[in-house]
Amino acid sequence: MGIIDLIRADVVSLVGAVRTLRWTTHIARRPKRVFPDVIEELARRFGERPALVCNHESLTYRTLSARANRYARWARAHGVRKGDVVCLIMHNRPEYLAIWLGITHAGGVVALVNTNLTGQPLLHCINVVKPRHVIVAAPLLEVLDAVRAQITGDVRVWLHGEASADLPRIDLDVAARPGEPLTAQERSPLTIEDHALYIYTSGTTGLPKAANINHYRLMLASHAFAGVMATRASDVSYNCLPMYHTVGGVVATGAVLLVGGSCVIRERFSASEFWDDIARWNCTIFHYIGELCRYLVHTPAHPSETSHRLRLACGNGLRPDIWAQFKRRFRIPLILEFYAATEGNVNLFNFEGKEGAVGRIPWFLAHRFPVKVVRFDVEKEAPVRDQRGFCVPCAPGEVGEAIGRIVKDADRPSARFEGYATAAETERKILRNVFRRNDAWFRTGDLMRRERGGYFYFVDRIGDTYRWKGENVSTSEVSEQITRYPGVLDANVYGVPVPQQEGRAGMAALVVGEGFDLAGLPAFLARELPEYAQPLFVRIRGEVEVTSTFKQKKIDLVSQGFDPAAISDKVYFNEMRARAFKSMDKVLYERICSGQTRI
Domains of the chain (ranges plus CATH)? Predict the structure, then answer.
């Protein structure tokens, strides 16, 4: 990267950072002004402008505020006091935002439960936050009923919508309550330090964790992204991401509402209807996460995919292997990639739209955003320590774990780590005695590399990277190469243990389509990847399972390994010397496990 390019990047980064700081520095200076208060202000300012819209309902700024006030009064009438938890189980819709706005305004804490969970994971998410009430939408009642008897504590369940159940209807209760602004006597004395939401992690490596979100973080998420995206009153944001996560529930809605724009809410993402929605609603911004963009790239050409008013796509998880194709095919003026964790203090923004980078911290902002990349031992799954017991910073281009310094400073609340519902989960994410005694840093759990110029590149999740033949293998980087092979629509790469072998061997679950030629794949892998990174096993699947935020699921795949008796898919063994894949059967499986077949 030349000096001229770096200067240009510095200017763009500086402009974006200054704009964002203008939106956020006032938050700590007005500690008694919380996000529900902001919504009241917006209602007075923008009145009947459309705020949240979808196919079946629409809320103006005024009706959104009034609906939230009704829910606040419901909460007070039914004993919700400051700090009491209410679980919300509901699909995307404008009402969703009104519910948690109102309850948090009354001082309650709303746990935004993943609507895809069933059984034990759902029960865990409810019990871990110890709620007093649970609100469930009628279409999801059957799922809740399956675990309802095991919910601990004295919990009252409320039904939203019509269903054949003997439960109180919260929608009917709030409809009878006044929507005028809360009186001084009805308001709970709140500050930005008070707890507002529980937002759960995606649970790709175990049961979801309930992250503590205080009112400051709500204000920060909405206001920061208003600055990051330079939102304006003419913007129409398209949100098809789940509203039980931060991007779909706070960023996509709040950042555009702050300036008088509108947010289009879709219940769930649909690749086939995406461009119809973008054109129909005249959207100017859309939010992506994970593999959403890959799904769009693999859809047939659509007449509206280039005739749109989009000015930017904002999100995280857009992989380098489809970045250029996505931008070019759909004529996206700017891809604004960022990196952040709901509960963490590591926030990176790629204001320049540099291909593949998750963000950048230029030298003149490094003091304000203390983020480091430290050497990491993949086998021990822990940072490397030197002879003094301190962590070792990575050199430019070297892969390590990204960490953010935890600062206990009232003037810099964004540098804190609020933790989870349980102390044990919180402590696991804190790295102590990192560069000096008694310092503390937030562990992202992500492997990154930082290049000269301050650009950060995501490499892999810790636990996904595995070690084989004495080398570290990044599943993300292997996946990117495999998906370049003709006919491969998606690839989920992971490591599996092999008896009598050190480390884990690579395995790839592939979704393939027209033009895929298995016979040519070994030669392609040999050409594009070093031998240790070439998958030893391949299984052909109908689909790659993902979480609701489009993160690939790997736990079940790893546990099944390469045993054909445990897998219904077709499995193949990569005979690297012969440059051919051989169908896996019981005999071959036993020969590999016994060491008779060399790998």
Answer: 464-594 (3.30.300.30)
